[in-house]
Input
Amino acid sequence: MYKSIKSAAVLSVAILSLGACNQTSKSNQQKMTDSTSLQAKIPDSSGFTQTIDGKQTHLFTLKNKNGVEAAITNFGGRLVSLLVPDKNGKMVDVVEGLSSIDGYKKAGSSYFGALIGRYGNRIAKGKFTLEGKEYTLFKNNGPNTLHGGKVGYDEVVWDAKQIDSTTLQLTYLSKDMEEGFPGNLNIKVVYHLGDDNGLNISYEATTDKTTVVNLTNHAYYNLNGAGSGTILNHSVQILADNYTPVDSTLIPTGKIEPVKGTPFDYTKPATIGSRIGDANEQLKNGKGYDHNFVFNKHTDTTAVVKVVGDKSGIEMDIYTEEPGIQFYSGNFMAGANTMKYGNKDDHRTAFAMETQHFPDSPNQPNFPSTELKPGKVYKTSTEYKFSVVK
Ligand code: GLA
Output
Protein backbone atom coordinates (compact mmCIF):
# COMPACT_ATOMS: atom_id res chain seq x y z
CA MET A 1 0.00 0.00 0.00
CA TYR A 2 2.68 2.46 1.11
CA LYS A 3 4.62 1.53 -1.99
CA SER A 4 1.80 2.33 -4.38
CA ILE A 5 1.12 5.70 -2.72
CA LYS A 6 4.79 6.49 -3.01
CA SER A 7 4.99 5.55 -6.68
CA ALA A 8 1.81 7.52 -7.43
CA ALA A 9 3.46 10.54 -5.81
CA VAL A 10 6.62 10.03 -7.83
CA LEU A 11 4.58 9.75 -11.00
CA SER A 12 2.69 12.98 -10.34
CA VAL A 13 5.94 14.82 -9.59
CA ALA A 14 7.30 13.53 -12.90
CA ILE A 15 4.17 14.64 -14.76
CA LEU A 16 4.26 18.06 -13.09
CA SER A 17 7.91 18.60 -13.97
CA LEU A 18 7.30 17.48 -17.54
CA GLY A 19 4.48 20.01 -17.77
CA ALA A 20 6.77 22.71 -16.44
CA CYS A 21 9.36 21.76 -19.02
CA ASN A 22 6.94 22.51 -21.80
CA GLN A 23 7.33 26.15 -20.89
CA THR A 24 11.01 25.62 -21.81
CA SER A 25 12.58 27.97 -19.32
CA LYS A 26 16.20 27.05 -18.79
CA SER A 27 15.88 26.32 -15.08
CA ASN A 28 12.94 24.03 -15.72
CA GLN A 29 14.87 22.18 -18.37
CA GLN A 30 17.60 21.78 -15.80
CA LYS A 31 15.05 20.34 -13.34
CA MET A 32 13.97 17.81 -15.90
CA THR A 33 17.57 16.73 -16.41
CA ASP A 34 18.07 16.38 -12.65
CA SER A 35 14.98 14.19 -12.34
CA THR A 36 16.10 11.69 -14.99
CA SER A 37 17.23 9.29 -12.31
CA LEU A 38 13.53 8.95 -11.35
CA GLN A 39 13.00 7.10 -14.61
CA ALA A 40 16.18 5.01 -14.52
CA LYS A 41 15.63 2.23 -16.98
CA ILE A 42 17.41 -0.07 -19.33
CA PRO A 43 17.13 1.04 -22.97
CA ASP A 44 14.83 -0.82 -25.32
CA SER A 45 16.68 -3.81 -26.73
CA SER A 46 15.54 -3.01 -30.29
CA GLY A 47 18.38 -0.48 -30.72
CA PHE A 48 20.85 -3.28 -30.04
CA THR A 49 19.50 -5.98 -32.34
CA GLN A 50 21.57 -5.98 -35.52
CA THR A 51 23.68 -8.22 -37.73
CA ILE A 52 27.23 -6.91 -38.02
CA ASP A 53 29.84 -8.80 -40.06
CA GLY A 54 27.46 -11.76 -40.10
CA LYS A 55 27.19 -11.80 -36.31
CA GLN A 56 24.12 -11.09 -34.22
CA THR A 57 24.16 -8.34 -31.60
CA HIS A 58 21.81 -8.08 -28.60
CA LEU A 59 21.29 -6.33 -25.31
CA PHE A 60 21.63 -8.71 -22.35
CA THR A 61 20.30 -7.98 -18.88
CA LEU A 62 21.65 -9.26 -15.57
CA LYS A 63 19.67 -8.87 -12.35
CA ASN A 64 20.54 -9.78 -8.76
CA LYS A 65 18.24 -10.51 -5.83
CA ASN A 66 18.26 -6.83 -4.72
CA GLY A 67 16.90 -5.67 -8.07
CA VAL A 68 20.26 -4.29 -9.20
CA GLU A 69 20.42 -4.56 -12.99
CA ALA A 70 23.20 -4.39 -15.58
CA ALA A 71 22.69 -4.21 -19.34
CA ILE A 72 25.50 -5.27 -21.65
CA THR A 73 25.68 -5.51 -25.42
CA ASN A 74 28.02 -7.89 -27.23
CA PHE A 75 28.87 -5.04 -29.63
CA GLY A 76 32.21 -4.09 -28.08
CA GLY A 77 31.21 -5.94 -24.89
CA ARG A 78 29.83 -2.66 -23.64
CA LEU A 79 28.27 -1.99 -20.28
CA VAL A 80 25.24 0.06 -21.31
CA SER A 81 23.41 0.58 -17.99
CA LEU A 82 23.87 -0.21 -14.33
CA LEU A 83 20.93 0.43 -12.01
CA VAL A 84 21.81 0.60 -8.31
CA PRO A 85 19.92 2.02 -5.28
CA ASP A 86 20.73 5.49 -3.94
CA LYS A 87 20.56 6.62 -0.29
CA ASN A 88 16.74 6.75 -0.50
CA GLY A 89 16.46 3.33 -2.08
CA LYS A 90 15.58 4.78 -5.48
CA MET A 91 17.23 3.06 -8.48
CA VAL A 92 19.79 5.23 -10.27
CA ASP A 93 21.52 4.42 -13.57
CA VAL A 94 25.17 5.18 -12.81
CA VAL A 95 26.57 4.39 -16.27
CA GLU A 96 26.57 7.00 -19.02
CA GLY A 97 25.75 5.45 -22.38
CA LEU A 98 23.66 5.46 -25.54
CA SER A 99 20.40 3.85 -26.50
CA SER A 100 21.54 2.04 -29.65
CA ILE A 101 24.50 0.47 -31.40
CA ASP A 102 24.33 3.24 -33.99
CA GLY A 103 24.76 5.76 -31.16
CA TYR A 104 27.78 3.86 -29.84
CA LYS A 105 29.31 3.72 -33.34
CA LYS A 106 28.89 7.48 -33.79
CA ALA A 107 30.52 8.15 -30.41
CA GLY A 108 33.32 5.66 -31.27
CA SER A 109 36.37 7.54 -30.03
CA SER A 110 34.79 8.00 -26.59
CA TYR A 111 34.77 4.22 -25.94
CA PHE A 112 31.57 4.44 -23.85
CA GLY A 113 31.23 1.33 -21.66
CA ALA A 114 33.49 -0.76 -23.89
CA LEU A 115 35.86 -3.64 -23.40
CA ILE A 116 39.26 -2.35 -24.49
CA GLY A 117 42.07 -4.28 -26.17
CA ARG A 118 44.34 -5.72 -27.32
CA TYR A 119 46.21 -2.98 -25.51
CA GLY A 120 44.33 -0.60 -23.21
CA ASN A 121 45.64 2.96 -23.28
CA ARG A 122 48.57 4.27 -25.35
CA ILE A 123 51.54 2.78 -27.14
CA ALA A 124 54.05 5.48 -28.10
CA LYS A 125 54.44 6.19 -31.81
CA GLY A 126 52.47 3.03 -32.64
CA LYS A 127 55.54 0.82 -32.28
CA PHE A 128 57.03 -1.78 -29.98
CA THR A 129 59.62 -4.54 -30.15
CA LEU A 130 59.05 -8.09 -28.93
CA GLU A 131 61.68 -10.84 -29.01
CA GLY A 132 63.79 -8.67 -31.35
CA LYS A 133 61.01 -8.01 -33.84
CA GLU A 134 59.47 -4.58 -34.36
CA TYR A 135 55.69 -4.31 -34.69
CA THR A 136 53.89 -1.31 -36.18
CA LEU A 137 50.36 -0.32 -35.21
CA PHE A 138 47.80 2.12 -36.56
CA LYS A 139 48.17 5.56 -34.98
CA ASN A 140 44.69 6.67 -34.00
CA ASN A 141 45.61 9.22 -31.32
CA GLY A 142 47.97 11.87 -32.71
CA PRO A 143 51.40 10.22 -32.94
CA ASN A 144 50.31 7.25 -30.78
CA THR A 145 48.07 4.16 -30.73
CA LEU A 146 45.17 4.27 -28.25
CA HIS A 147 42.95 1.45 -26.99
CA GLY A 148 43.88 -1.14 -29.63
CA GLY A 149 44.16 0.95 -32.81
CA LYS A 150 41.77 1.55 -35.67
CA VAL A 151 39.25 -1.17 -34.78
CA GLY A 152 39.73 -2.14 -31.16
CA TYR A 153 37.74 -4.69 -29.16
CA ASP A 154 35.24 -1.89 -28.47
CA GLU A 155 33.96 -2.17 -32.06
CA VAL A 156 33.96 -5.90 -32.69
CA VAL A 157 31.07 -8.28 -32.07
CA TRP A 158 31.81 -10.69 -29.24
CA ASP A 159 30.24 -14.15 -29.06
CA ALA A 160 27.85 -14.06 -26.14
CA LYS A 161 26.47 -16.72 -23.86
CA GLN A 162 24.16 -15.84 -20.98
CA ILE A 163 25.16 -18.39 -18.35
CA ASP A 164 22.42 -17.47 -15.86
CA SER A 165 20.43 -14.42 -14.73
CA THR A 166 23.53 -12.81 -13.20
CA THR A 167 26.30 -13.96 -15.54
CA LEU A 168 27.21 -13.14 -19.15
CA GLN A 169 30.17 -14.72 -20.91
CA LEU A 170 31.74 -13.00 -23.92
CA THR A 171 34.41 -14.54 -26.11
CA TYR A 172 36.44 -13.21 -29.01
CA LEU A 173 39.25 -14.55 -31.17
CA SER A 174 41.58 -11.71 -32.04
CA LYS A 175 43.49 -13.02 -35.05
CA ASP A 176 47.25 -13.06 -35.52
CA MET A 177 48.34 -9.56 -36.72
CA GLU A 178 44.87 -8.07 -36.21
CA GLU A 179 45.64 -4.35 -35.75
CA GLY A 180 49.33 -5.31 -36.03
CA PHE A 181 49.55 -7.40 -32.83
CA PRO A 182 51.19 -10.83 -33.09
CA GLY A 183 49.45 -14.06 -32.07
CA ASN A 184 45.95 -15.47 -32.22
CA LEU A 185 44.53 -14.28 -28.90
CA ASN A 186 41.59 -16.25 -27.48
CA ILE A 187 39.77 -14.03 -25.03
CA LYS A 188 37.04 -14.72 -22.50
CA VAL A 189 35.42 -11.96 -20.47
CA VAL A 190 32.76 -12.71 -17.86
CA TYR A 191 30.44 -10.08 -16.40
CA HIS A 192 28.91 -11.25 -13.12
CA LEU A 193 26.51 -9.32 -10.92
CA GLY A 194 26.82 -10.48 -7.31
CA ASP A 195 24.18 -10.29 -4.59
CA ASP A 196 26.59 -7.96 -2.74
CA ASN A 197 25.83 -5.39 -5.50
CA GLY A 198 29.26 -5.88 -7.07
CA LEU A 199 29.75 -6.05 -10.82
CA ASN A 200 32.72 -8.32 -11.40
CA ILE A 201 34.50 -8.35 -14.76
CA SER A 202 36.98 -11.19 -15.20
CA TYR A 203 39.30 -11.48 -18.16
CA GLU A 204 41.20 -14.49 -19.51
CA ALA A 205 43.34 -14.87 -22.64
CA THR A 206 45.76 -17.27 -24.28
CA THR A 207 47.99 -16.80 -27.31
CA ASP A 208 49.91 -18.94 -29.82
CA LYS A 209 52.73 -16.37 -30.25
CA THR A 210 54.34 -13.99 -27.75
CA THR A 211 52.24 -10.83 -27.64
CA VAL A 212 51.27 -7.92 -25.39
CA VAL A 213 47.88 -7.73 -23.65
CA ASN A 214 46.24 -5.08 -21.47
CA LEU A 215 42.47 -5.47 -21.18
CA THR A 216 40.11 -3.14 -19.37
CA ASN A 217 36.60 -1.74 -19.33
CA HIS A 218 35.92 1.87 -20.27
CA ALA A 219 32.58 2.57 -18.57
CA TYR A 220 31.83 6.21 -17.81
CA TYR A 221 30.23 6.66 -14.40
CA ASN A 222 28.15 9.41 -12.90
CA LEU A 223 27.15 8.27 -9.43
CA ASN A 224 24.43 10.93 -9.18
CA GLY A 225 22.87 9.34 -12.25
CA ALA A 226 23.65 9.37 -15.95
CA GLY A 227 22.58 12.73 -17.36
CA SER A 228 22.57 14.49 -13.97
CA GLY A 229 25.34 16.96 -14.72
CA THR A 230 28.85 17.58 -13.41
CA ILE A 231 31.01 15.00 -11.66
CA LEU A 232 33.24 17.67 -10.13
CA ASN A 233 31.58 17.33 -6.70
CA HIS A 234 32.06 13.56 -6.54
CA SER A 235 34.56 12.58 -3.90
CA VAL A 236 37.42 10.28 -4.88
CA GLN A 237 39.97 8.27 -2.95
CA ILE A 238 42.72 6.28 -4.70
CA LEU A 239 45.17 4.21 -2.68
CA ALA A 240 48.13 5.27 -4.81
CA ASP A 241 51.20 7.05 -3.40
CA ASN A 242 52.58 7.30 -6.94
CA TYR A 243 51.51 7.98 -10.50
CA THR A 244 53.10 7.95 -13.94
CA PRO A 245 53.53 11.53 -15.27
CA VAL A 246 53.07 11.99 -19.03
CA ASP A 247 54.28 14.15 -21.91
CA SER A 248 51.94 16.38 -23.89
CA THR A 249 50.76 13.37 -25.98
CA LEU A 250 49.88 11.47 -22.77
CA ILE A 251 52.75 8.99 -23.04
CA PRO A 252 54.38 8.24 -19.66
CA THR A 253 57.82 9.80 -19.24
CA GLY A 254 58.90 6.49 -17.66
CA LYS A 255 59.17 7.97 -14.18
CA ILE A 256 57.05 6.79 -11.28
CA GLU A 257 56.58 9.87 -9.12
CA PRO A 258 55.02 10.56 -5.72
CA VAL A 259 51.59 12.21 -5.66
CA LYS A 260 52.38 13.94 -2.36
CA GLY A 261 52.09 17.71 -2.61
CA THR A 262 50.44 17.51 -6.08
CA PRO A 263 46.80 17.63 -7.28
CA PHE A 264 47.20 13.87 -7.85
CA ASP A 265 47.20 13.13 -4.13
CA TYR A 266 43.91 11.28 -3.65
CA THR A 267 45.22 9.10 -0.85
CA LYS A 268 42.57 10.85 1.29
CA PRO A 269 39.10 11.56 -0.11
CA ALA A 270 38.82 14.84 -2.05
CA THR A 271 36.40 16.07 -4.68
CA ILE A 272 37.41 15.84 -8.33
CA GLY A 273 36.83 19.57 -8.69
CA SER A 274 38.89 20.63 -5.70
CA ARG A 275 42.19 20.78 -7.60
CA ILE A 276 41.41 20.01 -11.24
CA GLY A 277 41.86 23.68 -12.11
CA ASP A 278 45.26 24.03 -10.39
CA ALA A 279 48.15 25.43 -12.39
CA ASN A 280 50.02 22.17 -12.86
CA GLU A 281 51.87 20.95 -15.92
CA GLN A 282 50.52 17.40 -15.65
CA LEU A 283 46.93 18.62 -15.42
CA LYS A 284 47.66 20.76 -18.47
CA ASN A 285 48.99 17.74 -20.39
CA GLY A 286 45.90 15.71 -19.52
CA LYS A 287 43.45 18.62 -19.90
CA GLY A 288 42.43 17.50 -16.41
CA TYR A 289 42.89 14.03 -14.94
CA ASP A 290 43.84 11.49 -17.60
CA HIS A 291 46.63 9.68 -15.77
CA ASN A 292 47.70 6.29 -14.57
CA PHE A 293 47.81 5.93 -10.79
CA VAL A 294 50.13 3.26 -9.38
CA PHE A 295 48.33 1.38 -6.65
CA ASN A 296 50.07 0.75 -3.35
CA LYS A 297 50.66 -2.91 -2.61
CA HIS A 298 47.19 -4.44 -2.39
CA THR A 299 45.22 -7.62 -2.72
CA ASP A 300 41.95 -8.08 -4.56
CA THR A 301 40.14 -7.69 -1.22
CA THR A 302 41.31 -4.08 -0.71
CA ALA A 303 39.06 -1.34 -2.04
CA VAL A 304 41.76 0.58 -3.91
CA VAL A 305 39.36 3.25 -5.20
CA LYS A 306 36.29 4.77 -3.55
CA VAL A 307 34.10 7.30 -5.32
CA VAL A 308 30.97 8.86 -3.81
CA GLY A 309 28.24 10.79 -5.64
CA ASP A 310 27.51 13.97 -3.69
CA LYS A 311 23.77 13.98 -4.42
CA SER A 312 22.92 10.27 -4.47
CA GLY A 313 25.18 9.05 -1.65
CA ILE A 314 26.10 6.14 -3.95
CA GLU A 315 29.56 4.80 -3.24
CA MET A 316 31.52 2.78 -5.79
CA ASP A 317 34.42 0.72 -4.45
CA ILE A 318 36.88 -0.84 -6.88
CA TYR A 319 38.73 -4.08 -6.20
CA THR A 320 41.27 -5.27 -8.74
CA GLU A 321 44.26 -7.47 -9.43
CA GLU A 322 45.72 -4.81 -11.74
CA PRO A 323 48.68 -2.63 -10.68
CA GLY A 324 47.22 0.67 -11.91
CA ILE A 325 44.23 2.69 -12.96
CA GLN A 326 43.59 5.39 -15.55
CA PHE A 327 41.50 8.06 -13.87
CA TYR A 328 39.93 10.02 -16.72
CA SER A 329 37.76 12.99 -15.76
CA GLY A 330 35.81 13.24 -19.02
CA ASN A 331 37.98 16.08 -20.35
CA PHE A 332 37.28 15.33 -24.00
CA MET A 333 33.52 15.09 -23.55
CA ALA A 334 32.17 17.91 -25.68
CA GLY A 335 28.41 17.49 -25.92
CA ALA A 336 28.62 15.91 -29.38
CA ASN A 337 26.41 12.91 -28.56
CA THR A 338 22.83 12.53 -27.38
CA MET A 339 22.86 10.01 -24.57
CA LYS A 340 20.33 7.51 -23.16
CA TYR A 341 18.35 10.04 -21.13
CA GLY A 342 18.27 12.69 -23.85
CA ASN A 343 21.16 14.60 -22.29
CA LYS A 344 24.37 15.48 -24.15
CA ASP A 345 27.74 14.05 -23.17
CA ASP A 346 28.84 17.42 -21.84
CA HIS A 347 32.32 18.18 -20.52
CA ARG A 348 33.09 16.29 -17.29
CA THR A 349 29.61 14.88 -16.77
CA ALA A 350 31.07 11.39 -16.27
CA PHE A 351 34.41 9.83 -15.35
CA ALA A 352 36.20 6.57 -16.16
CA MET A 353 38.26 4.39 -13.85
CA GLU A 354 40.10 1.95 -16.13
CA THR A 355 42.01 -0.70 -14.17
CA GLN A 356 45.10 -1.62 -16.15
CA HIS A 357 48.81 -2.25 -16.53
CA PHE A 358 50.56 1.05 -17.15
CA PRO A 359 50.27 2.85 -20.52
CA ASP A 360 53.06 2.20 -23.03
CA SER A 361 54.49 -0.70 -20.99
CA PRO A 362 55.77 -2.47 -24.14
CA ASN A 363 58.24 0.43 -24.53
CA GLN A 364 58.94 1.02 -20.83
CA PRO A 365 61.31 -1.59 -19.38
CA ASN A 366 60.81 -0.43 -15.78
CA PHE A 367 57.00 -0.90 -15.86
CA PRO A 368 55.38 -4.27 -14.99
CA SER A 369 55.44 -6.45 -18.11
CA THR A 370 52.39 -6.88 -20.36
CA GLU A 371 53.89 -9.75 -22.36
CA LEU A 372 51.95 -12.96 -22.75
CA LYS A 373 53.69 -16.09 -23.99
CA PRO A 374 52.16 -19.24 -25.49
CA GLY A 375 51.31 -21.76 -22.78
CA LYS A 376 50.60 -19.01 -20.19
CA VAL A 377 47.17 -17.68 -19.25
CA TYR A 378 46.41 -13.97 -18.90
CA LYS A 379 43.96 -13.78 -16.03
CA THR A 380 42.75 -10.72 -14.15
CA SER A 381 39.59 -9.42 -12.57
CA THR A 382 38.08 -6.16 -11.37
CA GLU A 383 34.98 -5.57 -9.28
CA TYR A 384 32.92 -2.38 -9.03
CA LYS A 385 30.91 -2.65 -5.83
CA PHE A 386 28.04 -0.35 -4.91
CA SER A 387 26.71 0.76 -1.51
CA VAL A 388 25.39 4.01 -0.02
CA VAL A 389 26.69 6.53 2.46
CA LYS A 390 23.90 8.27 4.34
C1 GLA B 1 41.09 7.14 -22.32
C2 GLA B 1 42.19 8.06 -22.64
C3 GLA B 1 41.69 9.45 -22.78
C4 GLA B 1 40.56 9.53 -23.77
C5 GLA B 1 39.50 8.55 -23.37
C6 GLA B 1 38.39 8.50 -24.39
O1 GLA B 1 40.68 7.28 -21.03
O2 GLA B 1 43.24 7.99 -21.70
O3 GLA B 1 42.72 10.30 -23.18
O4 GLA B 1 41.01 9.21 -25.05
O5 GLA B 1 40.04 7.29 -23.25
O6 GLA B 1 37.97 9.73 -24.81
Observations:
- Confidence is low (pLDDT under 50) at residues 1-37.
- The first strand starts at residue 50 and ends at 52.
- The helical segments are 2-22, 26-34, 101-106, 281-286.
